[in-house]
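**Polypeptide and fold**
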Amino acid sequence: MRRVATAVGITPMAIYRHFPNREVLLDSLATASFTELAQHWGKRTWSAGPADFQRQVHETLDDYLDFALLQPHLYAFLFTEQRAGARRFPDDFRFRCLTPRSPCSPTHSPPACGPGSSVPTTCGN
């Protein structure tokens, strides 16, 4: 905490007015960083077509690699270190039904959602 306070030009005790402990500081950093990345990466426009898709995937991977190489410590903190409250693969990435799904076509009704259902992530039609 002292090094962070010194780096941003405040006294070591003043930082505790903003962040009560290291965990809250790191959680705030992660939230702000993910928000900034989402805004930057979300500006990308997506168009249809196989050739466009391949180009867009390459551009997205280039952005991701640029971030990793230009900010290696922040990248490691955000994407490789375990943090309290962070989602964990694979359990936290299983399909979860948060809202009722709409039909993928006029003749296909959305699958049932709830405990014990095996709702596909894409339409089988």
